[in-house]
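pipeline: protein-struct stage 2 | run 1193 | Putative MFS family arabinose efflux permease
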Amino acid sequence: MSEPDPKTRTFRNELWRSLPAGVLDTLTSTFGMLIAVRVFALGDTAKSIFLSATSSGMMISLFVVPLLLRARSTIARTAAKVQILGGALMGLAAAFPQEPWVFIGGLSTGLFCFTMQIPLLTQIYRLNYPATDRGRLFAITGVTRAAMAVAFGAFGGWLIGLDLENYRWLLWAFAAAGVASGLWTYGLPATQWDIDESAPSGLWSALRWIQVDRDFRTLLISWMLTGIGNLVATCLIVEYLANPKHGINLPGHEVAWITGVVPVISRVLFGYPWGLIYDRIGLFMMRTILNFIFTAGILTFYLGHGMGAWITGMALWGIANAGGNVTWGLWVTKLAPKHAVAEYMSVHTFLTGLRGLLAPYLAFAAIGVMSFQTLSLLCSASIIAASAFITVRARGSDDETRRRLGPQERL
């Protein structure tokens, strides 16, 4: 029996990999902090280490990719080894479940590994998925991943609801998910690195693309404005609804339903349509549409009053996040030369990690001097400014912009 073509094989393995990836999503969104607080009663330093793990991994990817490019291994196997290492590190937390610092260290370094290798996966998508179908295929695996996160989140909540000591089984589940993710990645088509031997090879070499590629530079600035505005607003959602000093003080289960269930349902429902849209419209146009939906969600949530406004705001945010996941993961594939996608993505993830580290501090500092409503207006202004910035560029008359960013781009 002949081997399936690279597109089919990549999609099949990525679809299976989305299941353990969905399990790992619940570690970062729910169970990691829940165990840290309820089981170990950890302090702010330990919790901050855990919360910063993914952002730190994104930042380090800028320096790791140039080294991995020269490892002379295939792309898939390099990514797989990093993932399996991440799963093994998580296994340390499961093997020593009574040790709080092993718990924090094992899970944090495991998550660090998983985010560090994101640019390698993006390079695989660029090589193995055709441009005309890339968004749709990516969206299907993303929807499957989100659905698995919902299912495992419900199961994990039920399990520790029976007995908090069952958190040990969750730790083993996360470790197993990490290894399983690596094994599915290992089975991807063995594409060799296409290295330009004359290109710079220093740890900061990927940054040269910011200077060389004007469209890339424009979108990075826009992503930074959008990301800061969006992250600052979303950092405070639970604080706004749950903290008694702000006057709302909803019960815990209502907060969990509004902030955890509503946006994930929107993400599952709208992920696939956004994948189709991504394949058919220009990148700048899609980013602008998503920015306006993010803005509508933020303003509805913070300026509205009552359950209806909060649910509507989070639903809009979930809709935009569904499309945002597709564009965040794939947009460099529409810009970068074929051999440089991982480097482009490493710059993007570096800046994403940087704003991920800064946003919580900015959010809580800002709320100390202004109201939630005023801050939501400032966050929305930042996102709208990002949209205006890229719209001006997209309307440029130069042939290069039209060729790369119009509906027919086939890079």
